[in-house]
């Protein structure tokens, strides 16, 4: 005869909670990406390879996902979560997907600037000038950080002067 868990013996049902799903999704995504990055060399601590940082970050992602899933008793039950904000979330995901698709075509500056402006002005209904100022400011700061300080190659705009 199989041993029963404490929940089964006490007559309580196990309730699926929001953090069970979120933690499980982080662990599953980490495992999938870890398997996909198997060809990147890990290297050693003295001479790290191209796969060291991604694999360390994925390990942390999976560890924190497991912690979230284990501590899921503090979160609301999945059946109690209202889904009235689903269209807003789907719109944000769709706008981000379009920006990702256009990233290499129109370049970093235009794709990030347009992404931020569309999200702030059309989705979050902020004022035109505030959305434009934040979009230009954040895009400029990110461009300077990545291209100047970090010397990271970014996709250029379709114009030759950027």
Can you describe what's shown?
With 162 residues, the chain is an all-alpha fold. It has two domains: 13-80; 86-149, no CATH class. Helix content is 63%, strand content 0%. The chain contains five helices and no strands. Helix 4 (86-123) crosses helix 5. The longest helix has 38 residues, at 86-123. The radius of gyration is 22 Å and the shape is flat. Mean pLDDT is 88; it is low at 1-5.
Total number of distinct structural domains: 2
* Low-pLDDT residue intervals, each spanning 5 or more residues: 1-5
Helical segment count: 5
**SSE succession:** HHHHH
| Biggest sheet character | none
Compute the gyration radius: what is it?
A: 22 Å
Total number of beta strands: 0
Structural class: mainly alpha
Mean pLDDT across every amino acid position: 88
Report the oligomer: single chain
- The helix content is 55-70%
Measured between the Cα atoms of the first and last residue, the distance is 71 Å
Strand content range: under 5%
Shape: flat
Secondary structure topology:
Elements: H1 6-9, H2 18-36, H3 52-70, H4 86-123, H5 128-149
Précis, in short:
This protein is mainly α and 162 residues long. The chain is built from five helices and no strands. The protein has two domains: 68 residues; 64 residues, no CATH class.
């Amino acid at each position: 005869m199989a041993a029963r868990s404490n929940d089964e013996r006490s007559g309580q049902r196990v309730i699926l909670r929001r953090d069970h799903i979120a933690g499980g999704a982080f662990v599953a995504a980490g495992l999938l990406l870890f398997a996909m990055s198997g060809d990147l060399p890990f290297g050693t601590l003295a001479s790290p390879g191209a796969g060291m940082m991604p694999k360390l970050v994925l390990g942390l992602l999976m560890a924190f996902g497991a912690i979230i899933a284990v501590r899921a008793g503090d979160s609301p039950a999945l059946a109690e979560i209202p889904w009235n904000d689903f269209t807003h979330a789907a719109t944000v995901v769709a706008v981000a997907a379009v920006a990702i698709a256009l990233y290499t075509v129109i370049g970093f500056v235009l794709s990030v600037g347009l992404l931020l402006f569309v999200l702030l002005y059309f989705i979050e209904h902020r004022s035109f000038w505030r959305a434009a100022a934040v979009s230009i400011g954040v895009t400029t700061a990110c461009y300077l950080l990545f291209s100047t300080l970090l010397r990271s190659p970014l996709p250029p705009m379709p114009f030759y002067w950027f």
